[in-house]
Amino acid sequence: MATSDVPAARSTLRILQHLARQRGPVPASAIAAALELPRSTVYRLLGVLQQEGFVLHFPESRRYGIGVAAFELSSGFVRQEPLTRLARPILAALVDELGQSGHLAVLQGRDVLYLVEERAPGRPALVTDVGVRLPSHLTASGRALLATLPPNQLRALFPDRAAFAARSTGDAEHDLGAVKSYGELKRLLDQVRRQGYAAEDGDVTAELASVAVAVRDHSGWPAAGIAVTFARAELAPASWPALADDIRRAAAELSRRIRGTL
């Protein structure tokens, strides 16, 4: 590629990224203004993107939106599981270093979905196996991810008390899950932001605790959470900030690999 082609390629990618962040199709003039690009350049690049199927043109409203080819790229991203592939060696190294089990989870609605689990030698099996879903507000990974969301999105996820499921132990008087209202969740997430990591102590499994840090993607959005789980009797809360520092370094490396900002 010639050097003169690089600015055009960069501008093309910026246009696609901008369109992907919008709630619906937008005028070319709005794209040009938002990206501070000449209108002629925007129209020329939109024409190429339209021809290749990455952009759709809505002539009646004179607006542009994301096309099918861009969706195919995102489908390829899902099929290739790059997040899992990138995270596994990082998580394995973290588990080797700490001697405690770790896992990677992503936010899906009000749940977290576990994508990777690395069990340390001699450690018990966890409920957070690959493919398991748990209520996000009960888990350290989920709390780390929820703490990054804007207030309106958080409120949409937890509109009332019915959204705060507990993890049943079979004994209604001892069900796990201390967070049972939006007010309690807000106070908890404020603490997560202040201290820079999330934790849970017996909210998922009695006598086990976890510490987690969010991994951010290229746009600063939460891509995943990395957590380490351990027996509560082995690591007192006073040692959790140091543990969070180790997890934060792993999260930073994964974020860097997916072109993140952490």
Could you outline the blueprint of secondary structure elements for this entry?
Blueprint: H1 5-21, H2 28-35, H3 39-51, E1 55-58, E2 63-66, H4 68-80, H5 82-98, E3 101-108, E4 111-118, E5 133-135, H6 140-146, H7 151-157, H8 182-195, E6 198-201, E7 208-216, E8 222-231, H9 240-257
Helix pairs in contact: 1-3, 2-3, 5-9
Explain what this protein looks like in three dimensions.
The protein is α+β, with helices and mostly antiparallel strands. It has 2 domains: 70 residues, Arc Repressor Mutant, subunit A; 177 residues, 2-Layer Sandwich (Beta-Lactamase), CATH 3.30.450.40. 44% of the residues lie in helices and 19% in strands. A 6-stranded antiparallel sheet has the order 5-4-3-8-7-6. A two-stranded antiparallel ribbon has the order 1-2. Helix 1 packs across helix 3. It is elongated. About 3% of the residues have low confidence.
Number of strands: 8
Distance between the termini: 31 Å
Structural class by SSE content = alpha+beta
Number of domains: 2
Count of discrete alpha- or pi-helical segments spanning 4 or more residues: 9
From N to C, what is the helix and strand string?
A: HHHEEHHEEEHHHEEEH
What integer is the average pLDDT?
86
User: What is the architecture of the largest domain at the second tier of CATH?
Assistant: 2-Layer Sandwich
Give the amount of beta strand, in percent: 15-25%
CATH topology of the largest domain: Beta-Lactamase
| Approximate helicity band | 40-55%
**Apparent shape:** elongated
GO biological process, one term: negative regulation of DNA-templated transcription
Keywords: DNA-binding, Transcription, Transcription regulation
Organism: Herbiconiux ginsengi
Protein name: Transcriptional regulator, IclR family
